[in-house]
Amino acid sequence: MTTDIDAAPHVTSMPRIGDPAPAFSAVTTQGQIDFPADYSGKWVIFFSHPADFTPVCTSEFITFATMQHQFAAYNTELVGLSVDGLASHIAWLRTIKEKISFRDMRDVDVTFPLIEDVSMEIAQKYGMIMPGEDSTKAVRAVFVIDPRGVIRAIIYYPLSLGRNFDELLRVVKALQTADRFDVATPADWRPGDPVIVPTASTCGIAEQRMDGHVDGVECQDWFFCTKQISADEVEAAIRVHPAGQPPDPAG
Q1: In which element (H, E) is residue 179 found?
Q2: pLDDT at 251
Q3: Catalytic residue (choose from 57, 203, 219, 225)
Q4: Of all residues in the chain, what percent are helix, strand and coil, respectively (each to 5)?
Q5: Domain positions in the chain
Q6: Which helix (H) or strand (E) holds 78?
Q7: How does DSSP classify residue 39?
Q8: Sign of the torsion formed by the C-alpha atoms of 135, 110, 42 and 231
Q9: Among positive and negative, which fits the CA dihedral 208, 212, 214, 217?
Q10: Which residues, 6 or more positions from 10, have their beta carbon under 8 angstroms from its beta carbon?
Q11: How far apart are CA 147 and CA 153, in angstroms?
């Protein structure tokens, strides 16, 4: 006889936004890494894919590798994972470079680390295995981790849906802008668009805003206020300096 306990769905644990990124050591296509310690001071996109030698994953890796320099411009490193072994990873990445093109991207060399996780230990630690989707493959998980090793954003996609990489870059820019300027970013925000000013903390501040006494702040109501930060100012604050150093948080 099946009991309620027997019928209970499997619960997958995973870290949450605001948690320290779970630490691990791993073998990758670029050698051994200690995560996130090796990436201290950098932003990281840590992502999983279901399997090597699959078409959606291949299109994603070609796109990620082609955009790697764009992420690097915002002090952001890429780290991938699947439950395949290292030999499979190496053979697949060689095949991508030698044989596969996607949207005019060809001869693509994937140089960011791809973790082997045959035991699924790391994937389980990050909640990347979703039994309702597949019990033996990682879903398309994305963790955006800040320079302190704290998880700042989590995005999950099913096996059949390739990721939007322009959106992942937008997320990185938006998080860095929010940190740098102490603001929030509205729907579909891009650098140069108005940003959201934190909600007034007192009645007096709310009244000053509504009376137009706060320079540079435009309020439609006391709780919905924006200000303009130019794209040039945003980019100057969050892009890596020409010498290769990230922007100084103190300005």
Answers
A1: helix 165-181
A2: 46
A3: 57
A4: 30, 25, 45
A5: 4-166, 176-238
A6: strand 76-82
A7: G
A8: negative
A9: positive
A10: 131, 132
A11: 13
Please tell me the CATH superfamily of domain 176-238, with its number.
Antioxidant, Horf6; Chain A, domain2 (3.30.1020.10)
Does residue 219 have an active-site annotation? no
DSSP secondary structure letter of residue 136:
S
Give tens-digit pLDDT for 121-139: 999 999 999 888 887 889 9
Amino acid symbol at 239: R
CA distances from 109 to 13, 32, 64, 97, 106 (A): 34, 19, 10, 6, 9
Q: Contact at 8 Å (CB) between 206 and 200?
A: yes
Counts of helices then strands in the chain (DSSP H, E): 7, 10
Query: CA-to-CA distance for 67 and 161, rounded, in angstroms?
Result: 19
Q: Which two tokens stand for residue 120?
A: 């699924």
Rounded to whole angstroms, the Cα distance separating 172 from 71 reads 8
Superfamily per CATH, domain 4-166: Glutaredoxin (3.40.30.10)
- Give the chain's radius of gyration (CA, Å): 21
In the numeric block, the tokens 């306990």 are attached to 5
pLDDT digits (tens, 9 = 90+) for 42-89: 999 999 999 999 999 999 999 999 999 999 999 999 999 999 999 999
